[in-house]
Design a protein that fits this description.
alpha+beta; Ubiquitin-like (UB roll); Creatine Kinase, Chain A, domain 2; 7-stranded mixed β-sheet; 21 strands
Amino acid sequence: MGMESPSDIFGSNVFDLRTMKKRLPKATFKALNQAIENGSKLGPSDADIVAHLMMEWAISKNATHYTHWFQPMTGLTAEKHDAFFNFDPQLGAIEGFTGVDLVQGEPDASSFPSGGMRSTFEARGYTAWDASSPVFVMINGNVTFLCIPTVFFTYTGHAMDKKTPLLRSIKTLDQAASESLKLLDGRDVKVDATVGCEQEYFLVDKKYYERRPDLIMAERTLLGCAPAKGQQMDDHYFGSIKDRVLSFMQAAEERLYRLGVPSKTRHNEVAPHQFETAPIFESANLAADHNQLTMEVIRKVAAEHGLAALLHEKPFAGINGSGKHINWSMQASDGTNLLEPGKEPHRNMVFLFFLVAVVRAIHKRGGVLRSSIACAGNDHRLGANEAPPAIMSMFLGRQLTHILDEIEAAGSLSESVVEAIDLGLAQLQDIRVDHTDRNRTSPFAFTGNKFEFRAVGSSQSVSFPITVLNAAVTESLREMNAELSKLKDLDEKSLLKMLRPFIMESKAIRFEGNNYSQEWADEAKRRGLPNLKTTPEALMLWQDPEVRAFVTGVGFLNEEEMDARFSVRLEQYCHNMGIEASLLLRLVSGYVLPPSLRRQTEVAQAIAATKTICGDNPAMAAAIKEQEGFLENLTTNIGNLMAARNLLQETMDEVEAVEGEAEQASGYATRVKPIMDQIRVYSDALEMLGEASSWELPSYHELLFLM
């Protein structure tokens, strides 16, 4: 039986505006709608009405509990379930859910990462309902519960989550962009950041996944030699989807549709067993929530289908890693996409103004944007197998580059011609060329009517990268608005003249070529663009006084919150690397060396037996010499592996003894990781030399080609 029509089931498990309008009294619905639209407070009586009707709706969906669903600094989601249950001495057990229950919760804050904002003994924390993101019911097996999207903050009022800074950045961007539009054409509208998050992931058969401790604990293979065939034939990308995978995809999409997630596209990605799903654009806050739901649903539905979903940035060496491209734009409340060039972008002054603002933002805050997506997993991915490099640059395409170059050179614009493609086939309609090509190596590219931030890692919460992007554009717009407000007679000529210095100062960030080339790395250095290759390098940028002034000036984090995130992210990096290094030591000792030593013994015994049988037969000397060479290769790799294993243990002990998160993180990046990489070389060589049936870890062949 196929899936029901998406339009019939979409949002059926969401208490959205459509559902609220049907169930709430008109006055209450109006008050709630104003709270959502304008951020106004919902009165206690209205909150009680909303809560009661929300509970009735959830119970009609078989929910028994509710939870404040929030995003702590782990990057995951968190939830504490409470029953729709109260006890009255006279009435006994009764169902209950009040406005206070809806609006505010109190999870224990002591065990979540706080970066020093809270001591272990200071446990109190609060969650507060984010009315701009609709509540929903989650169905896990035969259990249903109501999820209320919330922010999470300390007893002292400091944000301890991903959502609060995002909401702050959305507000400041609206203020700056709205002011721009009022100055440009007199429009009095609100502006929202809109986002569509592509999500890449791998699927492997659960029976192989469960035999790989590294996949279970680190979600990436720390060892494993490359199969004879990888992705070199380009036969997986956009290929026919396997029935088992298609069944999983359809089940996942049905669940997402019911949760109001507008999942639109599904396809095979480049690497074997790699796939992608992409939604329709939404408000940035909702898009961030929905991406968290997408990751959760992918994992759960995969398990139900006997599969394991891998969301790590680089689960397998030698083939494409997984990213999460953030497609970002700005939309006015009158429906205008502010980054839509139109048929004549050279005459679209609103578009050019906002285009220049974004270019400036990336030029000025590219390093901060890079640091927003820094994590141990992304360090493996950036710059390898179609992932963009760590150098932040921007691709605009031939036509838009020409327009900005003209403004820079002459302060005016000539006519722009929109090209068409003629394939010489009369039955085809005219094919209009987009304003840009696509540059898959660019970390930040204009793709028609939006920008695509391609460097975000697949496992990461999109909330913080979007927050930093919003803030960078806010800062740029504020500075440009100050100049725009000085223009007495605003026309095309005066606006282009005003834009000219902004275009000139940000030109270094624009690059149209191959971002992988060494020539670009050298050129980027000459241009003064940062190349922050590792997570510790990228995170140290948050200690720069000028960066701190930017963050606090835009206002998405205060000083204490900024310090907390710096500390938490360094700590997470150290924990991640420590887990992987410890796991690698155990894999080497328990999975690699035993079969390798048995193989060594068997080969040595076989050579000795051959010599005994053949004696001094000169005809066999060459063959025996080749066998001895095989044994020497095997023995050398075993010895090298043992030595590297011991060195890794010693180095780990030294790094972990270092005081200071920054110093320890640097030690993991510069000292521990290179030894881990070398261990992999020796181990993978032994896998190649070993007997396949005795190798206990499922191979890349099994993981990537058997499903």
